[in-house]
Amino acid sequence: MTATAQPRSVTPDDASRVVRDHLWMHFATHNGVDEAEAPLIVRGEGAYLFDARGKRYLDGLAGLFAVQVGHGREELAEAAARQMRELSYFPLWGYSHPPAVELAERLANSAPGDLNRVFFTVSGGESVEAAWKLARQYFKLAGQPTKHKVISRNMAYHGTSMGALSITGIPGAKSMFEPLVPSTQRVPNTNFYRATEHADDYEAYGLWAADRIEEAIVFEGPETVAAVFLEPVQNTGGCFVPPPGYFQRVREICDRHDVLLVSDEVICAFGRLGYAFGAERFGYQPDMITTAKGLTSGYSPLGAVLISDRLMEPFQRNDTPFMHGSTYGGHPVSCAVALANLDIIENEGLYEHVRTNEDVFRTTLEKLTDLPIVGEVRGAGYFWAVELVKDKATRERFTAEESTRVLRNYLSKELFDNGLYCRADDRAEPVIQFSPPLICDRTHFEEMEQILRGALTGAWKLL
Ligand code: PLP
């Protein structure tokens, strides 16, 4: 007799025990605090998540900046099941399979300019890793073997593998793993709220920030610098939007010094900013785009690097492969899920939906600026951050003790207990981050605002 495997039921008590004894959570403490509070999420539907007790939460973060089309989409489950029945797995090591073929063509057709080459990975960090390695090998084959360094921005997150972590600009995420890969250099991000240069001129500030990239390239020696990695909107620190002209100036600088511009769109692609790619929204042409997350709406792990024809050229002249790959990069099931996910995004007009509704999202969050603890609301598309301050007039920051007591110990939990899953992040400026599924609309934004208002009012009293 064949039995269909039924999901075993896991109770909150089981979860507490196993989290304590076996399951090592990511970026969570295991000294008793985070374990005791780790919620057991069992189901998702649309913009909502449900815990084991049936309590509902609004998913204000799309899982982790990933679930563009919302939870529980039958079409994606079907696409995965169909592909598993047909060809459950095969590698791309010198072979192809239909879902990778179809997806590569679709991504190449939708990517800006001549980004016609697609290299599949499994995750965002692996896309970053692959892009850096590709930049290095490209310059070796192109006769400029000393070009190998990377410039990236302060506080920017690019992943956790040793290469991606080396490019990452968050000191606290790196210090335990030093020494990291050498040859990386950090430059200022575009945090205009904390600007000390050109603080009264947004555009001039942006050009100043872009020029810091040129300064770093010249300082390092242009003959040693391979690439600049930038997110269209920087996540860590709270949705730093590029000032007008910023990316155009960066493009000029990269062209001047023959440095590759890599747009790290692990968060910003596939509708997060209302377009297929963030570069499209801000009108610049990268040499590579790194993606993951929203490509499959998180239903199955997949990443992709979109690469300029120009970078492929020396590989076509040489008998040398790109010496990189992985067992599951471009997994057929994930590629099939990605195709079905892109179908949903297109059929439901989600890029347009985001562009139409982003102002409603912004104005709803901006209502919170009447609270003394809210310093600024900033972002673009369906990607917003609320920065918290101790003093609105002076923009004074919290002390480390206040940050722990109010943000980490109170606010995250309070928001969650009141039915809102989002993220209170204090790795740089203390911000609450929002990146909901792209299907959300005014009713969801209003629900967020109401829950936030209550929790922020409570946080202010605690200070
Ligand atoms: N790059 C950016 C801009 C990201 O935001 C992230 C993750 O959030 C990564 C890279 C790493 O992606 P992953 O966690 O899939 O490795």
Describe it for me?
This protein has 463 residues and is of the alpha/beta class. The chain has two domains: 39-69 and 349-462, Aspartate Aminotransferase, domain 1, CATH 3.90.1150.10; 76-347, 3-Layer(aba) Sandwich (Aspartate Aminotransferase, domain 2). Helices cover 41% and strands 15% of the residues. It contains 16 helices and 15 strands. The chain has helices at 12-21, 33-37, 62-65, 74-86, 98-110, 124-141, 162-167, 171-174, 202-220, 246-257, 278-282, 309-317, 332-347, 350-366, 400-417, 442-462; strands at residues 41-45, 48-51, 56-59, 117-121, 149-153, 184-187, 225-230, 260-264, 288-291, 303-307, 374-380, 383-388, 420-421, 423-425, 431-434. The protein has a seven-stranded mixed β-sheet, sandwiched between helices. A four-stranded mixed β-sheet has the order 1-2-3-13. Helix 10 links the parallel strand 7 (225-230) and strand 8 (260-264). Helix 4 packs antiparallel against helix 13 and helix 6 (124-141) crosses helix 12 (309-317). The termini are far apart. The model has no long low-confidence stretch (mean pLDDT 95). The structure holds pyridoxal-5'-phosphate.
